[in-house]
UniProtKB/TrEMBL annotation:
Family affiliation: Belongs to the flavoredoxin family.
Cofactor(s) named in the record: FMN
SMART domains to which the protein is assigned, alphabetical: Flavin_Reduct
Gene3D superfamilies: Electron Transport, Fmn-binding Protein, Chain A
Domain Flavin reductase like per the UniProt entry, residue ranges: 15-158
Biological source species: Cellvibrio fibrivorans
Protein name: Flavin reductase (DIM6/NTAB) family NADH-FMN oxidoreductase RutF
Pfam families xref list: Flavin_Reduct (PF01613)
Lineage: Bacteria, Pseudomonadati, Pseudomonadota, Gammaproteobacteria, Cellvibrionales
Length: 190
């Protein structure tokens, strides 16, 4: 299992501000589901909030609406196929966790499971804003974790191992992985 560290909630945006694809997990009672989601973003710092698009007609949305919570995870390249697969079939018809032998571990503050082989995890509680008819869900981040080997001193230091890098989904099964970092200095001076 990937060793993870807790991240201050105010810094949770750093886990996905580089735009990786995400995996949403949800649970209610003895039901649970997992789906891929490309449209996620941080929306506030304190309290930390995120937005995720979950179609209101999906099984995941049904579970999120019933439980009032969800988890966002940011997968490593080594589970790109799993990320694609869980986005291609409905959890109403099959237990995707069993079908794909998905390894999970318990969340600390929500009932949705967290999945292994990710670079970061966010546990979220839904904020009711009167927009329940829309596909956008706003959640308050109640716990945040990152891969301890790659998130050091408050920022990403992605592994040289390409299988451990975050991924970005394009379309038609095509992904890009996070590339090499570079620095530049601002020309702004006071």
């Amino acid at each position: 299992m990937t060793k993870h560290i807790s991240i201050p909630l105010k810094d949770s945006y750093k886990l996905f501000n580089h735009g990786p694809v995400s995996i949403v997990t949800s649970a209610y009672g003895n039901q649970r589901n997992i789906m891929a989601a490309s449209w996620t973003m941080p929306v506030d710092f304190s309290p930390a909030k995120v937005a995720v698009v979950i179609d209101k007609n999906t099984y995941t949305r049904e579970l999120v609406d019933a439980s009032g919570e969800f988890a966002l995870q940011f997968p490593m390249r080594k589970i790109a196929k799993l990320t694609l697969d869980v986005g291609d079939i409905s959890g109403r018809d099959t237990d995707k966790f069993a079908r794909y032998a998905i390894k999970t571990f318990p969340a600390a503050q929500i009932s949705a499971p967290l999945i292994e082989d990710c670079i970061g995890w966010l546990e979220c509680k839904v904020i009711k804003q009167g927009a329940e008819s829309m596909d956008v869900i706003i959640g308050e981040v109640v716990a945040a974790y990152a891969d301890a080997e790659q998130f050091i001193d408050g920022r990403w230091h992605f592994s040289a191992d390409p299988q451990k890098r975050s991924i970005h989904y394009m379309a038609g099964g095509e992904f890009y992985m996070t590339g090499e970092a570079f620095r530049t200095e601002s020309s702004y001076s006071e």
